[in-house]
Amino acid sequence: MSLHSLLSLHSLPADELLRHVTDVSLAAVQLWRPLYAEGGTLFDFALEYLNPAGQRMLGLPARPGGTMLGRFPHAGPSGTFDFYRQVYESGEPGRLDLNYQADGLDDYYRLAATRCGPLLVVSFTDTSDYEPGAVEQALRESQARERLALADTLRQRRRLLSVFEQVPALVARVNGPDLVLELANAALREAFPGTPPLLGRTVAEALPELANSPLLAHLHSVFRTGVPYHGTALPTRTAAGARYFDVVCQPSHDADGLTAGVFVFAYDVTAQVEARRALQTLNESLEAQVLERTNAALANQATALAAAHRQVQEREAFYRIFEQSPALILLLREPGHRIEYHNPAFHHAFAGRELLGRSFSEALPELVQLGVGTRLTAAFTEGLPAVDAELSLPDLTDPAAPPRFYTFTYQAYREGDQIMGVTVFGTDVTEQVRARQEQAISQRQTATLAEELLLANQRLIRTNADLNAFTYTASHDLGAPLANLQGLFLALREELPPAVQREEAVAPLLRLMQGALDRFQRTLADLTDVIRDDAELQQPAETVDLAALLTDVQLDLQPLLAETQPALTLDVAGCPRLWFAPGHLRSICYNLLSNALKYRDPVRPLQVQLTCRCEATAVVLEVCDNGLGVSAEQQARLFGLFQRLHPQVPGSGVGLYSVKKVVDNAGGSIRVRSEVGEGTCFTIYLPRHMAEVPAVS
């Protein structure tokens, strides 16, 4: 039977029953009316009614008036107001258990709330219905556990802060695209002491010294791309003047894997001792501040809990810095240099072997053999930093790989005034070392090649001198005997009667003798031309009008042009003037055009084209014809001295040899494209500046 039916059966008014129920209820009952701002936002509740149990618990009358946040300001921070608003706006009933220790109340409460029309109905109980001794005992035990947890957290934080503050490098964490400084260690504050406070400000605002430094651009790039940056000897201006830092910028990520900020490690390679002294001073100051904050936190439990929460967050932040760092980080604690912590990079470098809890000499014998153990002991006993540069270690992750090189830095860390252990930072410098080694090898190879080239040039110079001497001797020493032979032949013809010269047996012999003497004479003339060309290779360059020069060449070739009747095309508009020795340029054009005319194919009309154009890196002079053409085997001998590939055509085999020698001497090159029965193209490439005629001084 429903409540409504029961009321009807006994003729009981509902409001009278409700009044009696709320009066006898052991739980408090509240009626709240929502209050809205102008924009329709629910910002508070008005207390409309409080039953007798609620009056007793809260010490208020039945119609107390006022608002929730006005009477109970702690309802906001404790989450009570948000709970009421959520139940009212969603229309779904809800429950909440909380320990409320503010606004004159100090008890554990259980609340149940539901919306009823325009009102919010809340029922709650406190611990007054339970045995006070048991509740108080449970609360004291809870507070004791919280104090123990807080003390343990503070000890761990002090230890981590002590290590972090004594790191011999500049360490910071920036957040967001604006690069807001979230963490900055003592070394960073020492390097930039003129702009406190650093935290909570952008890098550009807190560290104006970096405004013109490339580091700022690298930080933005790492945040934007998620790609780490490694910089070596990065110049930076600090309060102490110009400094150089090895910098590592590593992106940090949030729970969703997105880039949330950038970790920055910068190692000062110019003043390690000064950095250590500043670090010690700042560390002592920080320890005093931490002790002061800790004592103040212990005086108030709520403040202590909040401080403990912040300290845990800082500890986790420092831990993430070490965990995500590409540098090798190792914390050793005395006695015996026992390994207390290593980051993943160090663990990976030593092939994942078990390191924690073991002594340094037992876990890392490779480093002990290199004398690292001795320097660790010195750093611990003397408190001075030390550096081992470019230590060679085998690649334990790949035994077949070549060794890797690391630079290790050792720094004692303190707790109070006592040295408790040593921090080891290792940087992989393998790429720098190998690059330097490869550069040294390359320099030695270059020096060897230069020496070999010098010897080859010297041999070539001697060979060319011998060839020139031989050619000169041959051309001059053979001149006199040839003249004697010609004189004897003329005397013979004058002595022989005309009738005898016309005899069938004598006339061919005379013609053969005359032809041999003529060929001998042309050969000596060609040798003389070669000697003259060699002597004239250093003719001075001047401005040459290419069109006018080709007109003179055509006059010299007029008999051959008249004989062959070619379709001759000359196109030099692309480079009308050249800076070249006029005689050499005329020799090039004359020899190429005369070859095109002489080596024509009688089965088709002759076509010859000469063009000149300017390209990006060269001046290109080209002569093409549709003549006889030469085979691939003949092309290999085309530019040799006295090479004649078509004996049926008159020639000496000197022209193309002279052309190539002139082109080579000018710093250019010549190429040939040819097919038998199709024709030939000679392409000459000269330096581009030869088309840029210099001004006359």
Automatic annotation (TrEMBL):
Keywords: Kinase, Phosphoprotein, Transferase
GO MF entries: phosphorelay response regulator activity; phosphorelay sensor kinase activity; protein kinase activator activity
Source organism, top-level taxon: Bacteria
Reaction equation(s) it catalyzes: ATP + protein L-histidine = ADP + protein N-phospho-L-histidine
SMART domains referenced in this protein's UniProt entry, alphabetically: HATPase_c
EC number(s) stated in the UniProt entry for this protein: 2.7.13.3
Keyword Transferase: yes
Enzyme class: transferase
UniProt cross-references to CDD domains, sorted A to Z: HisKA
Domain Histidine kinase: 473-690
GO biological process: osmosensory signaling via phosphorelay pathway
Protein name from the UniProt record: histidine kinase
Organism: Hymenobacter daecheongensis DSM 21074
